[in-house]
């Protein structure tokens, strides 16, 4: 495992190569507003600077948080980039849209914007909002296309009776909000000089993929219109070694927690 001094050394070298101040967000838990206060404290310590790079590893989270993170970081810099060593999915991909560029390597992945919401019956479980919406769409199509719509309606009614109507409305709002945030971030930052691409990229990321985990690599991201900087040579080695160091750190912490239990 990389020791703290070694991780600090890699961060320092990355800052030299990128001529930036580097922040790290590495998490296997959903991205939410709990990040904001620690992030603000770190930004205050750095102070206003020309360029900030966020090394980001996240599988996504709440729909509102990425916008808040982007706006907060941009209070402290003139240029903002996201560095993705491995994975920045769903809500984390939305965060990328608020950057001026995204730095990616050969294994780096973005993904469709599909924020997490509460499960309709198991409230402590988070599920991709599109999964719920496709389920409701499936029921609707089953009733319309069924040879026996009465039976289909009865089955669907039993399922829908378990759903909170307020939650269903919240799901629709979350889908609309993800589109709105994507358009806003793209128009303000990533695609401010290419407004004709904003609707294309927004549609692709919010509606163009059926799999929540679909891997959008750097080539496909470029083809979509996202500003991708490819990391090569020493820069990529530093980024990847940082990722491996944090991954090992988290695994060891998990093992320690399991041993306590």
Automatic annotation (TrEMBL):
Any single GO CC term annotated in Swiss-Prot or TrEMBL for this entry: membrane
GO biological process assignments: proteolysis
Entries under InterPro entries matching the protein: ClpP/crotonase-like_dom_sf (IPR029045), Pept_S49_ser-pept_pro (IPR002825)
One Pfam family of this chain: SDH_protease
Protease is among the record's keywords: yes
Keyword Secreted: no
Keywords: Hydrolase, Protease
Protein name (record): ClpP class periplasmic serine protease
Lineage: Bacteria, Bacillati, Bacillota, Clostridia, Eubacteriales
GO function terms (MF aspect): peptidase activity
């Amino acid at each position: 495992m990389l020791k703290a001094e070694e991780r600090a050394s890699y961060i320092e070298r990355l800052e030299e190569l990128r001529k930036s101040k580097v922040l790290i967000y590495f998490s296997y838990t959903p991205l939410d507003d709990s990040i904001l206060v620690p992030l603000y404290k770190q930004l205050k310590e750095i102070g206003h600077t020309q360029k900030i790079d966020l090394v980001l590893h996240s599988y996504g989270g709440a729909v509102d948080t990425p916008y808040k993170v982007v706006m907060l970081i941009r209070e402290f810099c003139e240029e903002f980039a996201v560095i993705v060593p491995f994975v920045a999915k769903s809500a984390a991909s939305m965060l990328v849209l608020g950057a001026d560029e995204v730095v990616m390597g050969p294994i780096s992945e973005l993904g469709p914007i599909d924020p997490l919401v509460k499960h309709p019956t198991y409230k402590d479980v988070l599920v991709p909002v599109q999964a719920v919406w496709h389920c409701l769409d499936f029921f609707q199509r089953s009733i319309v296309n069924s040879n026996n719509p009465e039976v289909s309606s009865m089955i669907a009614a039993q399922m829908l009776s378990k759903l909170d109507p307020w939650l269903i409305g919240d799901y629709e709002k979350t889908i609309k909000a993800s589109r709105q945030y994507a358009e806003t971030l793209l128009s303000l930052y990533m695609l401010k000089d290419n407004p004709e691409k904003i609707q294309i990229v927004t549609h692709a990321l919010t509606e163009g993929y059926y799999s929540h985990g679909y891997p959008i690599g750097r080539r496909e991201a470029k083809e979509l219109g996202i500003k991708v900087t490819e990391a090569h040579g020493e820069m990529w080695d530093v980024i990847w070694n940082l990722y491996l160091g944090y991954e090992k750190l988290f695994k060891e912490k998990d093992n320690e927690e399991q041993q306590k239990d």
